[in-house]
Amino acid sequence: MRIIFATGNAHKMREIREILGETDTEVLSMKEAGIEADIVEDGQTFAENALIKAKGIAELVKDGDTIVMADDSGLVIDALNGEPGVFSARYMGEDTSYRIKNKNLIDRLEGVPEGKRSARFVCAMAACFPDGTERVVEGKIEGRIGYVERGANGFGYDPIFYLPDRDVSTAELSPEDKNAISHRGNALRLMKQEVEAWKAERK
Ligand code: IMP
User: Fold this and answer.
1) CATH code linked to domain 2-201
2) Packing angle between helix 10-20 and helix 183-202, nearest 10 degrees?
3) How does pLDDT run across 106-120, given as a tens digit for each residue?
4) Are strands 134-145 and 118-128 parallel, antiparallel or unpaired?
5) Which of 45, 75, 122 maximizes ligand 1 atoms within 8 Å of its Cβ, making it the mutation to test the pocket?
């Protein structure tokens, strides 16, 4: 068995291998599998987008021995009606720096009190199994939007995302500490259970 994960992001692949790699299954990126595809993610939810991606790649694979996985993630801010949500990567334009995006979000929350700054990172992960079975799981991490950017680890919105009851942003965590509690880590751990359950059913 092998897993092809629909991402070109090396940082994600490392995290995915760390968690899914314990199974007796090879994990390949699309590039490593020699697949090129540009799938339009036009779903309304993280789960829809993850499944659109996984199904799109699975259509190209169909070799009876491959599980195709894809994820979609983003930041959901309650005080902004869930923005940036599924538009997290595209918020203010794909090429706009996160310095600018993060500052903009802090500015938009001006005057919003501590108790109303709740937010979460969400990661939906979809799998298409060779027998046509489809599974989608969702991982989350709860936090709040801070007043300043802090930390140099991580990426994207990490410097403004603070853990509840702890004065640290996720950009101040080591990669290992972040993976242990992150939305993507949680989704991957749930997906690992799905893979094991699917394999057990086939035996
Ligand atoms: P993707 O679907 O995993 O590519 O993530 C979409 C976007 O969500 C990213 O480009 C980031 O803006 C944001 N995002 C997702 N996960 C994280 C995270 O762990 N830290 C910071 N930003 C994130």
Assistant:
1) 3.90.950.10
2) 50
3) 999 999 999 999 999
4) antiparallel
5) 75
